[in-house]
Write a structure and sequence with these properties.
It is a single chain. With 1273 residues, this protein is of the alpha+beta class. Helices cover 47% and strands 14% of the residues. The chain has 36 helices and 38 strands. It starts with 18 loop residues before the first strand and ends with a strand. It comes from Cyprinus carpio carpio. One of its GO terms (cellular component) is endomembrane system. It catalyses: cholesterol(in) = cholesterol(out). GO terms for molecular function: cholesterol binding.
């Protein structure tokens, strides 16, 4: 059919009451191309308004009830055909506005006024016409443009009633889809109506220029014209047809008075100062004062006693030993007796054991090797846990239970694969847009870069590979998230979000240009105009430019601008500094064959991206990630950092080998070196770790990469310390006359093994109790570490003693270590080797540290789902009202409460109200839209008919009838009947409320009974950027969900175990922060208590020494936490593992020294502290500090942030703090507060310090049996 169009502007206007300016349908507008609905326009016809009756009136009453005054009394300017076209057009809008009846009524009022008002000629002026040839061949003049004069009171009130109406599926506002390029934020009444009258939007059939004028204003009105000034309804008013007021969700005026949350607590202040700081300073000052008082008292007492001391006459006992004082058994305390008995028992036991081990090394070593191998065989079945969720969230934690419920009833969160691209060197450019004015585009928003991005996107989309699991070629469509065609997706059904999607991934669309005239100005429009329009109106099916392109992605969904671009302020999308490309894949259980397919696709995705990144011709700088990236990164950095760890261990080994040597002359270097002993010590550590891993692999307990990194380091620190203590003591001790080498080794082991037992047993008990932790990573670490430390001690008492025995044989025979057959003639020195550290400690460090002045100075020193469980009746009217948020719903319903929470985003962390399938289902059922219809003929009679069915009479029946009060509530039968149709209905222009994509996975029904056993409602958190905000969001979401749960349990028939809980993928990671402090305190306390108990027991119930030992370890731990804060180390599960490790390492720094002090025979506490610092402090310094520090420094070069922060920084802090407290603070503390003791069991000779009136008496004596009547000292 050919059309001859004549456009003319009318020079004369006729504006009289009771007259029409146009009447009857004249056909399709020839000036509109690419319309989304048929653009039917009226015929120009100046005539009197028509009295409507019969069917005409009934139709008129249903479409424009506000102008219906009863049959026979109603005049109108629209025919049945016009009413049908108007009804079809309004139906599209009602689909999103019907949830607020007054808004839908006002919107219809505007268009009914301009189309059907009996005074039509007075409120509008025809501005443009066209000739249209009718089917009969007659040419009629049709109206294709007019001006409408509307009162601002009416337009503003109508706009206010609609501006807050929500679209539950997106959480956004309906007005955003009805205001074109301005979106909801910049929309005004004028812009809202302008969009309604813009034929280029694909929905308006003709151009309408709405002129909004104030009441009484006549300027701009043609003679005889008047403003349309009917009363518009407020959103909180009922409609004339009985529709109820809009709900609070869509109308602020309908909201009840909700009490504001209480103000946030003010910072604790004392005056103008921080209260916590003031209290801390006060406590510190009090402690300082008490310490000073004690120091002064101690000094005064010491001086007084020194002055009053007189030498007593010497007497001798029956053994001719010189004595100064005779004491009776009652002078020996229970602690002294217990300590003596403990040391005698342990020393004798270990001496005998050591002698046997040293005597039969060639038997001991193979037996130890066999035992280790038996355990190590289990490693073949070891299971490494790499899933972060399984590492950090306890299986029985609330977050894991909720995740299990979610994953059992709903699909897991889809897998995100994303690129963020920048082009920092690209210059920005200005563009003078016909529609939007001058715009400044950032450098990255350029056509060349968008095309380059599209080429990369298409290359990724084309990934194909052979899958053995599927036994065919797999591609993106096999695993992609395809919301609108989940059953049989094609590549174009896959949800890919990017800027090119605004152009449907078409280069032709990107290159498209067209001339366009606006307000008499003609300019070319191109991709930039389309882009500006789409980022402001992403739900549009057609832009308002001459291009007439859709903004929807090729898969059928919208691309919200925050998913396409980044790095902008406010809503300045054209100034964005980054492009975002996101591929969403379905997530599968790890047992599902498609899980491997998805991971393989992601691996190839990463390969393409990495190759693209290395391409020197690329214009982008970008970051990227895949769902598997976290696990890959853990594995990659672990693999890359293995050499760093190996170097670290090599440095430690080299140090141990060199430091253990006793070098007396250059000729004996190869004889006196201890390379093989050092290597043996390292192998003992390695074997203990392997045995521990093998044992737990035997019993099926999983391991992790963190265990592989931390446990060897910990055991090496513990093991090296014991090695140094043992070997140095052996080197310093002179072999007695007639004593064999094996007996010598046994005797030395008897001296030091109780100290080694003290530390190892403390650490074992500490770690085994640490396994009570609910965090899987902490629990597994504690178990592996405990067994490894235990095995390390056992192997040191057996294999290492045997190895030292063999090395001692070699050294006694003057044979070289590497070339065992070569001997050296230079004899071994007769005096024991004290090494370098012992003389330095004894002559310089200990006296300087423990002089009176130093002693005093040292002492001062994301979307989230709200999920419902089984038991709630969604089908009843009471149940619907308790959930929904549209008209007729409870004011404090499920979704309303979430909406209230969004009013305080800084407190609730909720940004957008929840999408509600219940609300959209009700709107979908509403007969005001054409979503739910029933076939009235054909093979599908009485079944659901989708909105895109175009048959005129095949789907004439609506699913539901119009409710009298406008509040639609289906019966239980109708609810259950049409719910599956709603969930499978694909949304489109005719019915945007279809549930496919948005809700098809949100409702889970029992397959037999149809009962809803689980459902979810999606809301959005505010942007969360750190662990504090993620944790706060989780905590507040749970509070909100609990409040909702309590309300919904009050609905009739709801069981008390019904629950609503929030869920998002990040909750399982951040739940630990809700309990991390309590968890940390519990684990550390569990470690500290057995440390104290074991120390007391092995020191013969020496409570004071045990307390001082515990106090120092607590100080190390507390100071470590303090330095973590200063150095930016977060307190999380990894840090907690290291803090537990810190307790273990602190035991090494502290307990050896404490025991050495407790067993010292020097006369005063200061002398005993000096001796302990010199003898044991040197071994601790060499064995713990100098063993750890070189290895820790090497870790600074690791690539993984996890290792740099939690292994380098934290271990460095732990070692340095342990060193300072163990070798600086503890000796001073013992010199002040340590106990007097009489405990020497070494060869049963002792120096005994006894407090005595008039001074301290001491004498060298042989200790008699505890059964003796008297003890002489």
């Amino acid at each position: 059919m050919s059309y001859f169009c004549l456009l003319k502007v009318l020079t004369s206007a006729q504006h009289e009451p009771g007259y029409c300016s146009f009447y009857e349908d004249c056909g399709l507008n020839p000036a509109v191309e690419g319309a989304l609905i048929p653009p039917r326009v009226p015929c120009k016809d100046y005539r009197k308004a028509v009295n409507v009756t019969g069917d005409h009136y009934e139709l008129f009453k249903s479409v424009c009830p506000m102008f219906a005054h009863g049959e026979g009394n109603t005049l109108a300017c629209c025919s049945i055909r016009q009413l049908t076209a108007l009804q079809s057009s309004l139906t599209l809008s009602k689909a999103v506005l019907i949830r607020c009846p007054s808004c839908a009524d006002n919107f219809a009022h505007i268009h009914c006024a301009t189309t059907c008002s009996p005074n039509q000629s007075q409120i509008l002026k025809i501005t443009k016409t066209a000739n249209i040839t009718q089917p009969t061949g007659i040419v009629k003049e049709a109206v294709v443009g007019y001006e409408a004069y509307i009162s601002t009171n009416f337009s503003d009130a109508s706009f206010r009633s609609c501006k807050n109406v929500r679209i539950p599926a997106t959480g956004g506002y309906a007005i955003a889809t009805m205001c074109g390029r301005y979106g909801s934020t910049l929309c005004t009444p004028q812009r809202w109506l302008d969009f309604q009258g813009d034929s280029s939007n694909g929905l308006a059939p003709l151009d309408i220029n709405f002129k909004l004028l104030s009441d009484g204003q006549t300027a701009g009105l043609p003679p005889g014209a008047v403003l349309f000034a009917d009363k518009a309804l407020n959103c909180n008013e009922t409609t004339p047809t009985g529709g109820e007021a809009c709900s609070c969700q869509d109308c602020e005026q309908s909201c009840p008075a909700v009490p504001q949350p209480p103000p946030l607590p003010k910072p604790f202040m004392i005056g103008r100062l921080d209260g916590v700081l003031v209290i801390s300073i006060t406590i510190f000052s009090c402690i300082f004062f008490l310490i000073m008082c004690y120091v002064v008292l101690e000094c005064t007492t010491h001086i007084r006693k020194s002055k009053g001391t007189q030498k007593s006459k010497s007497t001798r006992d029956q053994n001719e030993n010189e004595i100064e004082h005779k004491i009776s058994p009652k002078d020996v305390t229970c602690s002294d007796k217990a300590s003596l008995a403990t040391q005698e028992f342990l020393g004798s036991l270990f001496q005998t054991w050591g002698t046997i081990m040293a005597r039969y090394p060639l038997i001991v070593l193979p037996v130890c090797l066999v035992v280790v191998l038996v355990f190590a065989v289990g490693i073949k079945d070891i299971e490494l846990t790499t899933d972060p969720v399984q590492l950090w969230s306890a299986p029985e934690s609330r977050a894991m239970r909720e995740k299990a419920f979610h994953d059992a009833h709903f699909d897991p969160f889809y897998r995100t694969n994303q690129l963020i691209l920048t082009a920092p060197d690209q210059p920005s450019h200005y563009y003078d847009s016909l529609l939007f004015g001058e715009q400044n585009f950032s450098g990255i928003i350029s056509k060349d870069l968008i095309i380059e991005l599209l080429e990369l996107q298409q290359k990724i989309q084309a990934i194909e590979f052979w899958s053995d699991d599927l036994n065919r070629t797999a591609s993106l469509k096999d695993v992609c998230y395809a919301p609108l065609n989940p059953d049989n997706p094609s590549l174009t059904d896959c949800a890919v979000n990017s800027l090119p999607q605004y152009f449907q991934n078409s280069i032709d669309n990107l290159n498209a240009k067209a001339n366009m005239t606006e307000l008499g100005v003609t300019k070319e429009v191109d991709w930039r105009d389309h882009f500006i329009y789409c980022v402001n109106s992403p739900l549009s099916f057609k832009d308002i430019t001459a291009l007439g392109m859709s903004c929807m992605a090729d898969y059928g969904g919208p691309v919200f601008p925050f998913l396409a671009v980044g790095g902008y302020e406010n809503e300045g999308y054209i100034t964005a500094e980054a492009l975002i490309l996101t591929f969403s894949l379905n997530n599968y259980a790890r047992t599902d064959v498609k899980f491997k397919v998805a991971e393989e696709w992601e691996r190839r995705f990463l390969k393409i991206v990495q190759e693209y990144q290395k391409n020197p011709n690329t214009n982008f700088t970008f970051a990227y990630m895949a769902e598997r990236s976290l696990e890959d990164e853990i594995n990659r950095t672990t693999a890359e950092d293995i050499p760093i760890f190996m170097i670290s261990y090599a440095v430690i080994f080299l140090y141990i080998a060199v430091a253990l040597g006793e070098y007396s002359s250059c000729k004996r270097i190869l004889v006196d070196s201890k390379f093989l002993v050092g290597l043996g010590g390292i192998l003992v550590v390695g074997c203990s770790v392997i045995a521990s891993m093998g044992f737990y692999a035997w019993i099926g307990f999983p391991s992790s990469l963190i265990i592989l990194q931390v446990v060897p380091f910990l055991v090496l620190a513990v093991g090296a310390d014991n090695i140094f203590i043992f070997v140095l003591e052996y080197q310093r001790d002179m072999r007695r006359p007639g004593e064999t080498r094996e007996e010598h080794i046994g005797r030395v082991l008897g001296n030091v093994a109780p100290s080694m037992l003290l530390c190892s047993l403390s650490e074992c008990v500490c770690f085994f109790l640490g396994a009570l932790s609910t965090m899987p990573a902490v629990k597994s670490f504690a178990l592996y570490a405990a067994l490894a430390v235990f095995m390390d001690f056992i192997l040191q008492m057996t294999a290492f003693v045997a190895l030292l025995s063999l090395d001692a044989r070699r050294q006694d025979a003057n044979r070289c270590e590497i070339a065992c057959c070569v001997t050296v003639e230079t004899p071994r020195p007769s005096e024991p080797n004290q090494g370098i550290l012992l003389p330095l400690m004894k002559k310089y460090y200990a006296p300087a540290l423990l002089n009176p002045v130093s002693r005093v100075l040292v002492v001062l020193g994301v979307p989230t789902y709200f999920i419902t469980t089984k038991g709630f009746n969604f089908t009843s009217e009471e149940g619907i009202n308790a959930v929904c948020s549209s008209v007729g719903c409870d004011q404090f319903s499920f979704t309303q409460k979430i909406r209230y929470a969004t009013e305080y985003p800084e407190r609730s962390y909720m940004a957008i109200p929840a999408s509600s399938w219940v609300d959209d289902y009700i709107d979908w059922l509403n007969p005001g839209s054409k979503c739910c219809r029933i076939y009235t003929a054909g093979p599908n009679k009485d079944e659901f008919c989708p909105a895109n069915e175009t048959g005129l009479f095949t789907c004439a029946k609506k699913c539901m009838s119009i409710p009298e009060n406008g509040v639609l509530r289906p019966s239980v039968e109708d609810f259950n009947r049409f719910l599956p149709d709603f969930l499978s209905n694909r949304p489109d222009l005719q019915c945007p409320k279809g549930g496919l994509g948005a809700y098809d996975k949100a409702v889970v029904r029992d397959k037999e009974t149809g009962e809803i056993i689980a459902s979810r409602f999606m809301a959005y958190h505010t942007p969360l950027v750190n662990s504090q905000e993620f944790t706060g969001a989780l905590e507040k979401a749970r509070e909100l969900a609990h409040n909702i749960t309590l309300t919904m349990r009050n609905v009739t028939g709801t069981p008390q175990d019904f629950e609503v809980f929030p869920y998002t993928v990040t909750y399982v990671y951040y739940e630990q922060y809700l309990t991390i402090v309590n968890e940390g305190l519990f684990n550390i306390a569990v470690c500290l208590i057995p440390t104290f108990v074991v120390c007391c027991i092995l020191l013969g119930m020496d409570l004071r020494s045990g307390f001082l030992n515990l106090l120092t370890i607590v100080m190390i731990t507390v100071d470590t936490v303090g330095v973590m804060t200063l150095w930016g180390i977060d307190f999380n599960a990894v840090a907690l593992i290291n803090l537990v490790t810190a307790v273990g390492i602190s035991v090494e720094f502290v307990s050896h020294l404490t025991r050495s002090f407790a067993l010292s025979i020097r006369p005063t506490k200061v002398e005993r502290a000096k001796e302990a610092t010199a003898n044991m402090g040197s071994a601790v310094f060499a064995g713990v500090a100098m063993t750890n520090l070189p290895g820790i420094v090497v870790l600074a070069f690791a690539k993984a942030q996890l290792i740099q922060i939690f292994f380098f920084r934290l271990n460095l802090v732990i070692t340095l703090l342990g060193l300072v407290h163990g070798l600086v603070f503890l000796p001073v503390l013992l010199s002040f507060l340590g106990m007097y003791s009489c405990l020497n069991v070494q060869s049963l000779y002792t120096w005994c310090s006894i407090p005595k009136k008039g001074g301290i008496k001491h004498v060298r004596t042989r200790v008699g049996s505890m059964k003796d009547e008297n003890f002489y000292f």
